[in-house]
Amino acid sequence: MKITNINNLPEAYYRNCLRDDHPRWGMDTFSVTELQKGTKEIILTHRHWEELTQDCSDMVWLILGRAVHKVFEGSEGEHEISEARLSATVMAYNPQTDAWDRPVTISGGFDLYNGQTCELTDYKTTQTFGYQTKKQEGMDSEWYKQERMYWWLLGKAGFEVRTGKVVVILKDWSKAKARIDRDYPQLPVQVVTYGSFGNSESAALLEQDIVRKVENIIMNDQLPDDHIPPCTKEERWDRGEKWAVMKAGRKSAVRLLDSRYDADRMVEDLGAGHSVVYRPGIPTKCVDYCPCAEFCSFYRDYMEAQNDVQEA
Asked: Which of 22, 106, 121, 124 is 20 to 30 Å from 68 at the Cα level?
């Protein structure tokens, strides 16, 4: 990937953006973080890595995340291990031999593990809205799924993990908002705690899920770019279409609903001055964060549809 500096930002900042902390592997090694992404994104990123570009002005949150991890690195206490990388091998289906004889390595670097309490800790820097969303998603969140894969890797290496937690640094936290809104995070540092990740049977089922994801990547890697199935709505960070119940004279919605039927019923109950406005879903990752969007047929089709709507 080529990192540009089109805005002529300071050289020291640009040099830090050039540093690549993530090793590039082929289709026989995948990282825990990588497997949280959609199959199409993984394949296109691998396939077009040398053609991808990103400007350093879009990497400020990556730099801040690195800085936070650097602060915590080396600060482990007694019975703790920090910034360690583990790997495990799974056997996947090999389409060339029609047998389950393809070894694939799963690699992951966890932030902190306490051997006495058997607790796994991960550090995250994110915006307040992102934290609230991940907390609400619970075990469906990307954070939980990532920690659960670290639990699996640690178990493979003989380390027990009883609990997990994510220490969250809120980048846009506001003391003023915390003062007037009790539902707003009251501190700029929050902790999301997860209970038990499961037992040996749960670990075996998780390994099956990992193998299925790897095989899906391997099989679709045989296809041309435009024939690879698109990422799921969740992987595209698509909040989904909504129907907003609006009140005359008010800018924000009275309520957002998942169906037109429910929205129409609410408008009937609320009476005159209320209406329904359709809000289409937005694939946020595709539009703002996917590194390989320019090579993705789903993204191109979405943008063409948006342009057609604007021209109409």
From this structure: 106
d(CA 54, CA 230): 22
Which positions ≥6 away from 217 have C-beta within 8 Å?
Answer: 27, 30, 39, 42, 43
CA distance 147 to 166: 9
Structure tokens at 42: 């993984």
Yes or no: say if 68 and 169 are a contact pair by the CB < 8 Å rule.
Answer: yes
Q: 157: which residues sit within 8 A by CB, 6+ positions away?
A: 86, 88
In-domain check, residue 303: yes
Contact 82, 71 (CB under 8 A): no
pLDDT in tens, 184-242: 999 999 999 998 899 999 999 999 999 999 999 999 999 999 999 999 988 998 877 78
Give residues with Cβ within 8 angstroms of 173, minimum separation 6: 128, 185, 187, 188
Q: Which domain holds residue 277?
A: 242-311
Residue indicated by tokens 């659960």: 148
Q: Is 271 left (phi over 0), alpha (psi -120 to 50) or beta?
A: left
pLDDT in tens, 97-126: 888 889 999 999 999 999 999 999 999 999
In-domain check, residue 237: no
* Rg of the chain taking only CA atoms, in angstroms: 22
Q: State whether 106 and 164 are in the same domain.
A: yes
Residue 309 structure tokens: 């709507």
CA dihedral 150, 217, 211, 130 (to 10 degrees): 30
pTM comes to 0.84
Residue 235 lies in a domain: no
Count of the separate structural domains present in the chain: 2
